[in-house]
Specification:
alpha+beta, Alpha-Beta Plaits, Poly(a)-polymerase, middle domain, five-stranded antiparallel sheet, five-stranded mixed sheet, 27 helices, 23 strands, about 15% strand, binds adenosine-5'-triphosphate, binds magnesium ion, Matrin/U1-like-C_Znf_C2H2, poly(A) RNA polymerase activity, EC 2.7.7.52, MTPAP-like_central
């Protein structure tokens, strides 16, 4: 088969050279080669091959020769389907015929002449068909500098020295900074012509001390003073006074636009026109007015720079100052950030290549490093709240209602008592995040510690209440967008800077941290090889493809399916319930998932129960729900009595507290509190649940087709697999009625447990078939791997509606 040569067997599965993807196992490989992408690329390759065989490469004609002239000349050999001229017309052309024999006929003729000139005719060059990957050039350049860097790293004597070398080879050098300054100056001059008193302020990696050679130039066009200027000019006009000196009387673009009422898109359009027409060397100007922060992108030809101009980005200028400050407070931050950025890039975890994507951006990654350093023992960096307390009055700063106060100078901040070296701190970073419960925690640099996600489910509720009660919502009251990874911006406290990440990126980040952590434990990381082998950072920076596809082998062997806790997709009533549950939220959620999983096996896939401890789940749920109700009552009291809120030993707010000293003897609240504490302990680690099921049909086979047929004859709108309970039950029913039964009943056990705390919160389901000599259960399991989590999510959503 043709795809055989495209598929390569690797240590951890397969690799498709055509689509450039890793595939973990045979069933996925079969799906992959039948899939849309692979099939599309096969067709495209066949089409390109035919085009190559049907065409010839022609040069030597006059510069003014047209496509029609060439078409007419070559038509004598057969019908010409296309003539493609090169960009700078007149150098070469590709003449394409409808049949390969026409091209052969052209090549067979020894001499060709057009307008008295001898044409050179060659077979068309055969290019290897390769998927054009975005940022190919970029990764090629990185690879070259990485190869050079690796040579340098091998010469170092310690990991500490290696990390310093990473900084040396990537950081922006003085001359590069000067070039950037010059461009800023030039833009300042040009823009001042059009927007009197405006300011061009650089921010981002060019100035935050973490810049690398190729980083973009982020600029903020501050029009505050220009607005004041325009207002002043307008009022003088209205009163008929002569324009004062202060209001600069020269003509400007401001007669065309009213900055107090113009939309950001209108202003940026103007900025784009100025860039295009008035700034020498600028090209590729593009306005993205629908981005979260509308922006004009541009490049500078001679300086080989890419830039961004935004107009409403004061917070970014301020957070840039914050990063600069952190660098100044502790010199270990820079080498750590440079090293971790490079590691993350190599592992395809960070650096979205063309604009927004599901990977971490460099800002979010840097915040993760700072947060880790705030959590070292003793801390390397202080929390943002601590920094705020060190600032003086003049340093107070509020932007868009957010408190952005911190000292302007690093020497105000006392030196850290932490003396760990870079090698240890890097190892610690991987350990910290390999054990991090991303699903249930929120990274908060403001407080310098983790906040439970339940706090944010509640905040969301409160935000809704506030909005309902008092009309328009104040900016601060809206909740952050919760996702698989939650990193609060240190200033804009309802902005999740990792809100763009998807489940897969979060998992990959964690998995790579685990792998790096494992490697850092080895001697190869810590000690220079005496035999010239790669050691230290060199192995850490091995790109993903070299290290092989991400390991799925272990999960396959154990037959395990995980259902992650996804705060973002929980139905509203459940969010409210979990928000009040404190530490017990895992138990309540676990009970809901168990009930959903039971529904999937019993009602949707029509499995028969042989034995179950569903009662355990039911009891857990009952307990949790009853307690949730009690808590709700009591929590309302404690919310009103806000002064009585205390802190637990980890510094987390406890939703339920009473001022015990006020009461003589145990009050009702104290009893509830005591009961809750007991329950908390139980509920933090609820008992696992077990079921044994049997299945007599191949309910997994051919579901897509059955679903399609069913949808054709029903009014239901199309839903993806696992998206609708009713349709999926009917699909199973139809298979059970129409298809042959399995020769032997499938019997299997399922153990379910909830994990979290020092790993991502999730329900883990382990499958144990009683016997599976024919591999039938393996097929069923592969189906369940994707079906079960999707279906459970749908059922949970339904429960909330
Ligand atoms: P690089 O350009 O090298 O990838 P960078 O730090 O300049 O790194 P950009 O994506 O260009 O990253 O962003 C520029 C600046 O804008 C950041 O340094 C940060 O100050 C701010 N910024 C970027 N993303 C966010 C975000 N999600 N939330 C808040 N501020 C952000
Ligand atoms: Mg940048």
């Amino acid at each position: 088969m043709e795809h055989d040569k495209d598929i390569q067997t690797t240590q951890r599965g397969f690799h498709c050279n055509l689509c450039i993807v890793n595939i973990p196992n045979k069933p996925s490989l079969d799906d992959h080669v039948k899939g849309k992408k692979h099939q599309h690329l096969l067709r495209l390759r066949a089409q390109r091959k035919a085009q190559e065989e049907n065409s010839v490469f022609v040069s030597g004609f006059k510069p003014d020769t047209s496509q029609t002239d060439l078409k007419e000349y070559f038509a004598q050999f057969g019908p010409v389907s296309d003539v493609i001229m090169d960009k700078h017309k007149g150098v070469y052309a590709i003449v394409e015929f409808s049949e390969p024999q026409n091209a052969q006929a052209v090549l067979a003729q020894l001499e060709h002449q057009l307008d008295g000139l001898k044409l050179r005719v060659k077979p068309r060059e055969r290019k290897e068909f390769k998927l054009a990957t975005r940022g190919k050039q970029d990764s090629k350049n990185t690879q070259i500098s990485l190869d050079r860097l690796n040579n340098e790293l091998l010469k170092a004597t310690s990991v500490n020295e290696q990390m310093q070398k990473v900084v040396d080879s990537f950081e922006l050098k003085e001359n590069e900074k000067k070039v950037r300054d010059l461009l800023v100056q030039l833009l300042q001059e040009v823009f001042t012509e059009f927007f009197p008193d405006c300011q061009i302020v650089p921010f981002g990696s060019s100035v935050n001390t973490f810049g690398i050679h190729s980083c973009d130039l982020d600029l903020f066009l501050d029009l505050e003073n220009t607005k004041a200027f325009q207002a002043c000019a307008k009022s003088s006009e209205a009163t008929g006074e002569n324009q004062s000196e202060d209001c600069h009387s020269e003509d400007s673009i401001l007669s065309d636009i009213d900055l107090s009422t113009a939309s950001p898109a209108e202003v940026l359009e103007l900025v784009a026109v100025i860039l295009r027409k008035c700034v020498p060397g600028v090209h590729k100007v593009q306005t993205l007015s629908t981005a979260r922060l509308p922006v004009v992108k541009f490049s500078h030809r001679e300086l080989n720079l890419h830039g961004d101009i935004t107009i409403n980005n004061r917070l970014a200028v301020r957070n840039t100052r914050f990063l600069q400050l952190c660098s100044g407070i502790d010199s270990r931050l820079r080498p750590l950030v440079y090293t971790i950025r490079l590691w993350a890039k190599q592992k395809q975890l960070a650096g979205n290549l063309s604009g927004p994507g599901p990977l971490l951006n460099n800002y979010a990654l840097t915040l993760l490093v700072i947060f880790y350093l705030q959590n070292r023992d003793p801390p390397v960096l202080p929390s943002v709240n601590h920094l705020k307390n060190m600032a003086c009055e003049e340093e107070e700063c509020v932007i868009e209602e957010w408190d952005c106060t911190f000292p302007s100078q690093p020497f105000i901040v006392p030196s850290s008592k932490n003396t760990e070296d870079l090698c240890t701190l890097l190892f610690g970073f991987f350990t910290f995040y390999s054990k991090f419960d991303f699903s249930a925690s929120v990274v908060c640099l403001r407080d310098g510690h983790v906040l439970p996600i339940t706090d944010f489910l509640r905040r969301d509720e409160e935000a809704v209440d506030t909005a309902e009660a008092s009309g328009p919502k104040p900016k601060r009251s809206s909740a952050p967008k919760l996702g698989p990874m939650n990193v609060l911006d240190p200033f804009e406290q309802n902005h999740n800077v990792a809100g763009n990440l998807n489940e897969r990126t979060q998992k990959n980040f964690k998995r790579e941290c685990c792998e790096a952590e494992k490697y850092c434990r080895s001697l190869q990381y810590q000690r220079k090889s005496t035999k010239g082998k790669s050691w230290g950072l060199v192995r850490l920076f091995a790109p993903l493809s070299e290290a092989g596809p991400r390991s799925q082998v272990e999960t396959e062997k154990i037959m395990e399916v995980s259902i992650p806790f996804k705060a973002a997709v929980l139905p509203e009533p459940l969010r409210a319930q979990l928000a009040l549950a404190g530490k017990s939220f895992r138990s309540i959620w676990f009970a809901k998932i168990c009930s959903a999983v039971h529904t999937v096996f019993h009602e949707i896939l029509k499995c028969s129960p042989l034995e179950e401890t569903q009662t355990v789940a039911a009891t857990t749920q009952d307990k949790a729900e009853t307690e949730g109700n009690e808590m709700e009552v009591n929590n309302n009291q404690s919310v009103e009595d806000s002064g009585s809120q205390a802190k637990s030993e980890t510094g987390k707010k406890r939703p339920l507290t009473v001022d015990e000293e006020e009461e003589e003897g145990p009050s009702t609240s104290t009893v509830i509190e005591a009961k809750r504490q007991r329950l908390d302990a139980d509920m933090e680690h609820p008992e696992p649940v077990h079921w044994t099921w049997s299945q007599g049909n191949r309910v997994w086979a051919g579901r897509r087709k059955v679903r399609r047929d069913l949808l054709k004859t029903s009014d239901e709108t199309s839903k993806p697999e696992g998206g609708c309970i009713d349709i999926e039950s009917r699909v199973t029913q139809s298979i059970v009625e129409k298809e042959e039964k399995l020769q032997e009943l499938l019997e299997f056990k399922v153990d379910a447990e909830v994990v979290g705390g020092n790993q991502s919160t999730k329900v883990v389901l382990r499958f144990h078939p009683s016997h599976d000599t024919t591999g039938v259960f393996q097929d069923f399991f592969h189906f369940l791997e994707s079906f079960l989590p999707k279906m459970a999510e749908t059922i949970l959503g339904r429960a909330g509606s």
